[in-house]
Amino acid sequence: MTDKEIIAKWKNETAPLLPVLHAFHDRDDYISEDSIKTISAGLKIPVAELFATISFYHHFSRELPGKQAPRVCTGNVCCLNGGTELLDELKSEGATPMPCAGRCDEMVPVIKGRQVLVGKNSTSLKCRTSPLPIPNPGNSEECIFRYIREENRSKLDGYQRNHGYAAMRQAIESSPKNIRDIITESKLAGRGGAGFPTGLKWKSVAEANGTPKTIICNADEGEPGCFKDRAIMDHDPHSLIEGMTIAAYSTGSNRGFIYLRYEYPETEEILQKAIDEAIQNNLLGKGILGVEGFDFDLQIRRGAGAYICGEEGSLLNSLEGKHPFPRNKPPFPVTHGFENLPTVVNNVETLASVPPILRKGPDWYKSLGIGDHAGTKIISLSGDINRPGNYEVPFGLPLKTLLHDWAGGAPEGKKIKAVTMAGLSGGFLSKEDLEVTLDEPSIKSKGSFLGAGGIIVFDNSRDMVKVAHSAMEFFSHESCGKCFPCRIGTQRLKERLSEEDSGLDALNWVKEVNEIGEVMKATSACGLGIAAPNVTDSLQKYFPEAINDHVNK
Amino acid sequence: MVPIWRFPWLITSSSQMISAKDVPATARILTVSVDGELVELRDGETIYEVTNHCSREVPTLCYDPRLEAFGSCRLCVVEVEGIKNPVASCTTKATDGMVIKTRTNAIEQYRKTLLEMVASENRNLDIDPLSGYASQELGNLIERYEARTDRFCGKKSGKTNQDDKNPFILRDYDNCISCYRCVRVCAEQEGDHAINIINRGFETQISTEFGNDLRDSQCTFCGQCVQTCPTGALSDKKALRAKELPEEIKKTRSVCPYCGVGCTVDILSKGDRVVGIHPAMDGPANEGALCIKGQYAFDFVHHPDRLQKPLIRQKDGTFKESEWEEALDAAAEGFKKVLEENGRRSVYGIASGRAPHEAAYTMQKFIRSNFGTNYIDNCSRS
Q1: Which chain A residue shows the shortest CA-CA distance from B208?
Q2: H or E element: which one contains B264?
Q3: Fewer CB atoms < 10 Å away: N or C end of chain B?
């Protein structure tokens, strides 16, 4: 496509900037100065602003070889499993490192153009579909993964073979309020990590003034060690589409976006095919299932490599083509979201839980949890563990059951030393705290949180200070640079964890690290800066002797 | 402050603290409690604005009252009853009955730590006040909080761009603390969008499009970025020429002599030399804004080419220095001649925008009464 055609295609669409940038990036393998000037004129964005916004995204290249040069995952799991070596091996092809690309169950991912290859060395690199969740090893009932392993599940036929779109048909027979009540009763809460009650969010949007309203699926799964949304979208895309459409129906929204992370190019194709199929079968679009006035226009917007865009304020700014800094809250997206209008922002897992909940009822869903805990959670398990992968666990399952009984424990001859929680954001759990159960109250009582459900395992051969350094390196790489405590704090914590001598004695090291941590937790503007010090806090809690060695080295 | 007579039921003999919650909602006056003091609130105000009513002097670095609150420096955090983490007072709306604490020990400690962190990324904290209007903000806060400048050592942020070849704005990003006031003032006040924030995190940098010099950007050299910069990372190159002059800086309030807008300025002088211009933040016409002329074009004052005596053009085209008496006679002669030969409509007066008000008045009087026409205008209209 020519410049003109690209601009003309998107100019009058909603949220046009990201697709336009990707169109130029895909066509030329990089975004040239001339392209930036053209886009600036076409979309009426000042050149300096556009230039700056593009520079915010890790994956937009501004020079050749650009997009075709391999990007090798050197994320927190991959760097311990050959990622760094693979990067060196591919240096001659212009390879650059990238943070966790969400393929921790099958290392090491390398992105080349629109392909994801996996393998631990250049000869074994191969393009293949992402792994399915391992057949449920416990005897617990699944909600989301119930049918995901069925053949052809990603196609409409396959999906409909096992109750696909039945919940939506059921929903349109009922009132939007009734749907919201069912979701509220089921105690479904945000599975992206924040845990906000989904029913309440939908109610707030339904009752908020202003139209059009928007449903946004946050599929920017950027947290290291999290790859659960990828599994859902790759193998059960219609469950997400159905969940979103039901959300649209019950909140009176008529437009929707899936904000998908850059690192999942194949997922985009799978989702787009599923959306097209749904449109052809009157399951999306105008007058859905023949219900007059039930319109839902669903589009995919692809991110470009910025962890912070998983924060809902940043995500909304990114969609709107603005600089992707988090927004000040309040106001919240339920009243002032996309284009300042009422907006639901839900995680993939949350939305995919909706159809089974509607079909089987809130009591069924609640009963899936253990004890007082309602429902299930997908855990992405990776690192030093025999069977890494996605597991749908009942809330309240003992962590050790998952680690040892379900996933086969540490590799032969090793012991589990520590695990992370919430990907990296929850810091580490170790020693007697590994006795927790997988639910927020239990994990929060140890100063951590379950969050999006990524758990990275480290065995007794790992140097925990190095691990912590790699975690902080991630946070400082991804800090957006807006608020002072996070921008400076992540950098300073990273420096104090690095092998280079900080010039501090043990006493001052601890004092400085804790003081930075305190100020970050208390005053950071968004979750990144609030959560990052969990790494240093938990490191000190469980491994004080390692810190001593580190400082006295 | 809320006059206490509005709440007679609260007047007690003791000096006990009162809480906004003690005021019944039916009183219909919105109030918040700030450090135990009841303060009236206008609807829509932020906590920061309310704390200003009672002179709390909450510290800030990213705040400029003319700009949309940004909430990045986090120095203005305050405690609000019922909210777990401190909130940024500049971006949080005050609501009726809010109980706010602006300087608890914890809050003051956060501020001190934050300032020490900021100092750690900065190369130079001793900034000449000629650098710009707000250039002392960081230094003053560090002093106020007795913040140490030798803690949290590590990599410095920002990359100087001192070789930007423009004659007005010194871009020394070694001193930049990424508050983005420059970027925001350029976009929100000036509408130029000449600079923006590239990269992320500790690597953020203020940049024009493609990292070009300012001359090759949309910059109009209004200097607003310089005047809002709280660290001297952007400074006034022309004013800094007078850095070595030994005299104290004196500020004289005046009105910009250029166009008809009438921007209020503070003229900076050292001894009898004009060394720079600051926009007046309280100037009714400009609220801190100036243009390139008002901001930087003051060199004529001490310029050797500046006319000190009237010159009379001779028949051969050369000029002869003269005294006023003689020059005025020559001018009157000329006007009379033109009037006799070509009539009264042959004279058109254009007053200089640089002339003071009284001179402009005299000028129109001169045209109207001498020639009986309204052929009078001012250069600032054209």
Answers
A1: A48
A2: strand B264-270
A3: C
Residue B317: other Cβ atoms inside 10 A: 6
Q: Hey, how many other C-beta atoms are within 10 angstroms of the C-beta on A360?
A: 18
Chain-chain contact of A46 with B218 (C-beta, under 8 angstroms): yes
Task: Answer whether A523 sits within 8 Å of B155, measured CB to CB.
Answer: no
pLDDT in tens, B122-176: 888 899 999 999 999 999 999 999 999 999 999 999 888 888 999 999 999 999 9
In degrees rounded to 5, what are phi and psi of residue B205? -150, 145
Please indicate whether, in this complex, the C-beta atoms of B202 and A480 are within 8 angstroms of each other: no
Check A306 against B200: CB less than 8 A apart.
yes
Full set of structural domains in chain A with CATH: 3-56 (no CATH), 69-127 (no CATH), 156-365 (3.40.50.11540), 368-459 (3.10.20.600), 464-551 (1.20.1440.230)
Tokens of A395: 């809330």
Please indicate whether, in this complex, the C-beta atoms of A490 and B201 are within 8 angstroms of each other: yes
Residue A213 in tokens: 């309203």
For residue A202, which of A219, A185, A177 has the smallest C-alpha distance? A177
Domains plus CATH for chain B? Answer: 4-103 (3.10.20.740), 122-240 (3.30.70.20), 247-306 (2.20.25.90), 311-381 (no CATH)
CB A77 within 8 A of CB A224: yes
Q: Mean pLDDT by 10-residue block, N- to C-terminus, for chain A (553 residues)? A: 97 97 97 98 97 98 95 96 96 96 96 95 94 90 97 97 97 97 98 96 98 98 98 98 98 98 98 98 97 97 98 98 96 97 98 98 97 97 97 97 97 97 98 97 97 97 97 98 98 97 92 98 97 98 96 87
Q: Considering only CA atoms, which of A52, A149, A183, A346 is closest in space to residue B204?
A: A52
Q: Judge: A525–B74 Cβ closer than 8 Å, yes or no.
A: yes
Burial class (CB in 10 A: 0-12, 13-18, 19+), B336: exposed
A6-10 contacts at long range (C-beta below 8 A, 24 or more positions apart): A7/A38, A7/A39, A7/A42, A7/A43, A10/A43
- Please provide residue A105's backbone torsions phi and psi, each rounded to the nearest 5 degrees: -90, 0
**Nearest-by-Cβ selection for B199 from A55, A328, A490:** A55
d(CA A40, CA A32): 12
B195 Cβ neighbours under 8 A, 6+ residues apart: A48, B182, B183, B186, B206, B207, B208, B217, B219, B225
Nearest to A488 among B61, B117, B217 (CB): B117
Query: Cβ of B185 under 8 Å from any chain A Cβ?
Result: no
Question: Beta strand B205-208 with B195-198: parallel, antiparallel or unpaired?
Answer: antiparallel
Please confirm whether the linkage preceding B86 is cis (ω < 30° from 0).
Answer: no
To the question of pTM greater than 0.90 for the whole model, the response is yes
Least CB-CB distance to B209: which of A47, A484, A524? A47
ipTM of the complex: 0.96
* Longest CA pairwise span in chain B (Å): 91
Which of A324, A272, A289 lies closest to A165, judged by CA?
A289
Cβ within 8 Å of A, B 117-156: 117-118, 120-121, 151-155
Query: DSSP 3-state helix, strand, coil percentages of chain A (rounded to 5)?
Result: 45, 15, 40
